[in-house]
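Worked Example 4.2. Consider the chain below.
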Amino acid sequence: MNLKIYKPDDSGEFYTTEVHTQYNFSHDRVNPLSFRRMHEPTVSALKEWVVTSLRLNVRGRSEKVSEFLTIGPEVTGLKLMVNKIGTRYHLMGEMASKDTIVTAIARTLYKSCFENDNDKLYSYMLYHLRLPSNVSYALENRAPFHWYKKGQKVDVRFNVKMIGPDMCAMEISDGVWGEISVKQMNIYMNYYWLGQMKGSWKLLSPRKLWKKVMSKEPSEGQLKMMKAFLEQNRTDDIVQNRALELVQSLEKQYPDRLAVKWMPDKKGIKAMAIRGKVADWIITDNEFKSDIQAVSTFLFSADTGTGDRLTYQSGILKGPICIDNMTRNSSVGDQFAARALALLNDNITIKIVNTIHRYLSDYHEEGQDSCRIDFGMFRMNDWKIGSE
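Applying the procedure from the previous section yields the following structure tokens:
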């Protein structure tokens, strides 16, 4: 069977991969749009498909379970075997949690849309089996943590490093690193990243976290320094600063195609002008923010003389155009950066975001230069919508 994995956009296009199991499939398509509340919508959609197709969610089965899945041609494809003995799950003989196994299979299925070498796919599967996606995320993006201070939730992030094949280290205070195994790091992330109320690494205060990773109680001085360190590593600040750094690098990389109106000390963005291949665009901070649309996107168009209220320079701004994020976890800075990257290549974005088409005019075509924003004027003047 060819499994269709839809792209996370409005194009209606999909990737395909050949899959076989011992059961008849209940459905042959996966749609990440149904999982947009998850951190990784495509992987989450594939995980549900794997669980259903291998009947891993069927209650009342015997304690011994053996399920087979072949990725690629039925005879020559990559064969994966999932076993359950008692309460323990195994993939190709290696024991791991059910979620880790299902995630490894899901990621390998997606990889197989672009790779058909069995050896490479098997190595890819083993990597994600032995280093769960939770831990990979922590290594790449820092590990989330939160506690409550006078009733207010404080979200922070820790640096995480691998210090051995099965061991991580987490920086819980300035220059203070505590050891945590990969297995325990995975359980920790299940709560602090995915919100699962399981295991012994949930609902920790800074004092309890120190004790778990350092194997001893902190002194009052150590605890005070730890909390001060955490205050300096608030999640919102880290994510926002990283996004703003990306925007600054884009501004340097594309000075003729991207201009930014910064707030004082570059602590935020007022507006951004982008020169696409088809049109010019303005992105502004959305006054009425939502978790999937924290910025507003406008298309620069010729003045029609009909009294449009959003006049700008010699033309008008059409919009705001509804362009949603796939996930609900992006900061304002992230959304500015994502829109900038998408609209620099607007000839592609227009094809996959259906809401844009109705704002385009006949002269909006690739390479046009008849309807463009004056970037010099944009940079020089205070930002505002209205005739200049």
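The radius of gyration is 25 Å. The longest helix spans residues 235-253. Compare this with Example 4.1 before moving on.
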